[in-house]
Amino acid sequence: MKSLVQILEDRISQSLRTATGLDVCPALVAPSKSPQFGDYQANGVMAAAKQIGVNPRQLAQQVVAILAIEDLCESPQIAGPGFINLRLKTSLLEKRLLGMFTDKARLGIDKTRTPKTIVVDYSGPNIAKEMHVGHLRSTILGDCISRLLEFEGHIVIRQNHIGDWGTQFGKVILALWHLCMARKRGLNTIQTDQKYLLEHSEDAEAIKAYCRNIRDRHEQDYEEDKKNVRGDGELYFGPFLELLPTIKEQIWPQLLEAYQFVNTLEELSENLGLTILTRKINNGQSEYISIPYESLSRHITAMLQKGGAENSQELNAWKCIKEITLAHCSDIYKTLNSKLTANDVRGESFYNPFLANVVKELRDKGLAVESEGAICVFPEGFVNKEGAPLPFIIQKSDGAYLYATTDLAALRFRIEELKADQIIYVTDARQALHFQMLFAAAKAAGWTDRQVDLIHVTFGTMLGADGRPFRTREGGTVKLQDLLEEAAEKARAVVEEKNPDLPESQKVQIAQAVGIGAVKYADYSNNRDSDYVFSFDKMLAMDGNTAPYMQYAYARIRSIERKSEGKEVDIERELREIHKTLALVDSSEIDLAKKLIQYDQAIEAAALQNRPNYLTSYLYDLSQTFSRFYNACPVLQAVDNRRPTRLLLCDLTARVIRHGMEDLLGITMPRQM
RNA sequence: GUCCCCGUAGCUCAAUGGAUAGAGCGUUGGCCUCCGGAGCCAAAGGUUAGAGGUUCGACUCCUCUCGGGGACGCCA
Predict the structure, then answer these.
(1) Using the CA of A636, which nucleotide's C1' is the nearest one?
(2) What is the CATH number of the domain that holds A359?
(3) Looking at residue A410, what is its pLDDT?
């Protein structure tokens, strides 16, 4: 079905053009805010009248006089300075409802006639780190945006730009090595050492002695771990890496621990003068050099980035860590009902081969120049604290590349290889400047010449009850997994209280759907630009604009179906003949019908501005309208000739709510709760 | 210093440049012989931080001021 607003817009614009002689004068049709102004209103007459210098009310008269719209609306009313108010005919409402009812998959909503290829970049967790609340908004916002655009008929390419490359990887590989040696000894040396270091961090002498011990042990392990040459790692570390994929789940928390330990150790051993002998490969020959102990991870990073067969063990370790991390992430995605999969992962490392070329191209084009030893682009209109041009650094003075370089390479890849017409980046608002400069640089380079839209979808911070960024009581970041588990737990308590007789397995499923749904819905229903206060109590409330309320509203409609059996009402048969029996009579039936046929508008508005809260507020509004109808109109007890219409309204309301919540927001809707 | 976001009812938040700025919570008062009361109806509650401007029309766009948060050369 063509969208009703579009039909009205086309018809009135046509008449408006005829009446004014103007080429462009949109009717600006929108749903009316108050029922006294009808159902829809055209706002375009005032602007058009202004343009040609006539009285707007008179112009409205002329437009209405030539407007052929009797098949849709009662006779249009002119009001205020020149609004055209439209009231839909009941016959049209019935026709639209039937159109929605017949289309099982899309509720009568057409796909776009101008499909685009749209890349949506979201989530972006880091390797070897646990996903925390900071990833929540990007992950679920990006997911909803992708679903919305996909439903509209666009070709959506999800991209999970994971942080799988960078200076921290030496640390992670080192962590893995410590873990390997701890296992070899069969002792939890990492925990013991970490505990000691943290407890004695004020005692310089103790720390120095302890670090020296660790270093000595380290060198000894390194010495022992060889098959052919010293430190080749083939005796212990190599086999350990092969074992890793089979013990992913156990090793994950240990790896996080070990990573913390490496950080602590590096911090505390700085400037203690400890050194370590390590291998460096030059032209295929092993050399052994002595480096400061605290710089060992940086040395490993360098080896990893240098690549080549002789550093293949580092590369293997990196691959293992990546795999383990992604297993953790996909657990979270599954819990969140996110559609992200391993196929969508294209991390920073993927773009390594393109980085040098990106810099070269920008230099060749005269956009990138050397400044204080670094290679920078100075996009127009950006200034720093001193009012001087602000650099977008794409290569550090030591020759290394940065995330700006990677982002440029990714952007070019998405345009050239993925054929993107639009790229949407879903990251928090703090990166706004980075993306502004990135987009400016890409435009200057001519990469967006064939009409590529670059959009940064920003969002605010999640705050705790104290109004400060959401943290644990100890001040650390909140792990996403813990948060989601707690949500399900709290929801479980609610289910237990309200519906204790359900079978256990169903309770578990409902608690999961309610808990996770509540977290997601709370986020979606807020304007993404605002910071928002995270509160389990509020999001799990059964009143107001919350997931549990929506789920309840849905379950209540579904329960009508269950009840029908006892009442000997054959819903299926009555709906099969609905095209003959449909008749909207009661005002609350008509109100609900009007709300139902506006679903397409809610989706369009949400997709156009990447704002899921437009969708949630529609769904909430729909539920409230349904509640009014439900209160006023008996369904199963209705007299025979009124019942089919009411059954249809119930069916469509349930389907719209389910579609919006489950298909577009990814929130599970139990049929019973 | 420059730039970005936010400031709306007591509280938490909405509002594609359109008419009288809306919900929920809380407050007050109603409604069950009835399909799930986790409901419905109603009332009270506002100088949209402030001052200018653009517009037929401004919470919305522009300028300035105040308040909160954030970004700003080799981290991502």
Answers:
(1) B35
(2) 3.40.50.620
(3) 98
Cα separation, A318 vs A169, whole angstroms? 7
A658 domain residue, yes or no? no
A550, A658 in Cβ contact below 8 A?
no
Cβ of A538 less than 7 A from strand B: yes
Q: What is the pLDDT of residue A422?
A: 97
Establish whether the CB of A639 is closer than 7 Å to any nucleic acid atom in strand B: no
Q: Could you write out the DSSP letters of every residue in A423-443?
A: EEEE--GGGHHHHHHHHHHHH
Same domain, A344 and A438: yes
Cα–Cα distance list, A552 to A465, A513, A634 (Å): 27, 12, 19
User: Where among A450, A480, A510 does a domain terminate?
Assistant: A450
Same-domain status, A151 and A223: no
- Nucleotide nearest A56, from its CA to each C1': B56
CB of residue A93 closer than 7 A to nucleic acid strand B?
Answer: no
**Upper half-sphere CA count for residue A114 (Cβ side, 13 Å):** 2
Domain count, chain A: 3
- State how far the alpha carbon of A41 is from the alpha carbons of A1, A49, A393, A590, in Å: 21, 16, 51, 18
Give the DSSP H or E segment for A512: helix A504-524
Predicted confidence band of residue A40 (pLDDT cuts 50, 70, 90) = very high
Check whether residue A143 and residue A83 sit in a common domain.
Answer: no
The predicted pLDDT at position A329 comes to 96
Question: How many Å apart are CA A407 and CA A413, to the nearest integer?
Answer: 10
Contact A618, A554 (CB under 8 A): no
Q: Does A455 fall in a domain?
A: no
For chain A, report the end-to-end CA distance as a whole number of angstroms: 34
Q: What is the pLDDT of residue A33?
A: 87
Judge if A185 and A155 occupy the same domain.
Answer: no
A46 CB below 7 A from strand B atoms: yes
One domain, residues A288 and A392: no
A266 and A350: one domain?
A: no
Q: How far apart are CA A340 and CA A123, in angstroms?
A: 9
> Distance (Å) from CA A119 to C1' B64?
40
Measured from the CB, is A393 under 7 Å from any atom of strand B? yes
Q: Which of residues 514-533 of A touch strand B (CB under 7 A)?
A: 525-527, 529-533
Residue A244 within a domain:
yes
Please, which pLDDT band fits residue A467 given cuts at 50, 70 and 90? confident
- Give CA–CA dist A129/A585, Å, rounded: 59
pLDDT band at A471 (very low <50, low <70, confident <90, very high): confident
A630 touches strand B (CB under 7 A): yes
pLDDT tens for each residue of A41-61: 999 999 999 999 999 999 999
Each residue of A588-636: pLDDT tens digit?
A: 999 999 999 999 999 999 999 999 999 999 999 999 999 999 989 999 9
Note whether residue A188 is domain-resident: yes
Q: What is the model's pLDDT at position A225?
A: 92
| The pLDDT of residue A524 is above 80 | yes
Asked if A324 and A251 touch (Cβ cutoff 8 Å), the reply is yes
Q: Which of residues 127-186 of A touch strand B (CB under 7 A)?
A: 163, 166-167
A268 and A395: one domain? no
Q: Could you list the residue range(s) of the whole structural domain that residue A227 is in?
A: 169-306
What CATH number does residue A73 fall under? Answer: 3.30.1360.70
Ramachandran region, residue A283 (left: φ > 0; alpha: ψ -120 to 50; beta: rest): left
